[in-house]
From TrEMBL:
Organism: Prauserella cavernicola
Keyword Protein transport carried by entry: no
Superkingdom classification of source: Bacteria
Protein name from the UniProt record: FtsQ-type POTRA domain-containing protein
Domain POTRA positions: 77-145
Keywords of this entry: Cell cycle, Cell division, Cell membrane, Membrane, Transmembrane, Transmembrane helix
Keyword Nucleus belongs to the record: no
Cellular component terms per the entry's GO annotation: plasma membrane
Amino acid sequence: MTTTRQRAGQRPARRTPSRRRTTEQVRSRRGRRPENARTRTGTGVSRRKALRRRWVALLGLLTAAALVYILFFTSLLGVRSVEVVGTQSISADQVREVAKVPDRRAMLRVDTDEIADRVATLPGVATVDVSRSWPSTIEIAVTERTPIGFYNTGEALYLVDTGGVVYKQVGEPPEGFPELKLSEVGPNDPATSAVTEVLDSLPGQLRERVTVVRADTPGSVEFTLEGGKVVRWGDAQQTDRKAKVLAALMTREGKVFDVSSPELPTVS
């Protein structure tokens, strides 16, 4: 039997009490993840999210590029028909021929302004509006000029519209329109503007009887009616009143009917 002797003057050695782990402590430690493991897990999730965002962004760019290519550089949404509206004396085929709309060209690459400029060169066209009608039609809306009379240059006859524009040559005097006997005809000529304004404002039955219109100045408009009677109209003011006064004067015998001053009309 082995015994341990204790030397004199020495204190007995103390035993370090053993630490006992409770069940709760063991479970608690088992349920925890080490700090480095949690860090690695969080970093992995962040990387996956970042990678997913990059793929989404790349897919968006590729989709946008594909749409741009389809819309601008393929005939998938290209021109397949040209629709013309508003024409009366001008044929739709004439408009298409002058418009020169490129067939099968991508709709977004069609220059509508250039098309409108080409169509506007047609005699008789006042305004042009060119638009895209998806998915594959170019629409050309034309407003034709409205003739108010004709002008004889001495060499040829031309139609004149309500704005005083000389726009179309004709072979013979058009039926139902008066001749404009002016020293100059044009949209910027004051006498022309007065004549066209007077003609455009006359009552229909009276205007149909007018054969010739003259004016040296904007205030000296006069016209000849069928049968040779002359009406001195003056300026383009008080149209309704002058028309009523003229209707009363025409019941009298005479050759010249002056309503330039409707307050003091005369017959001679």
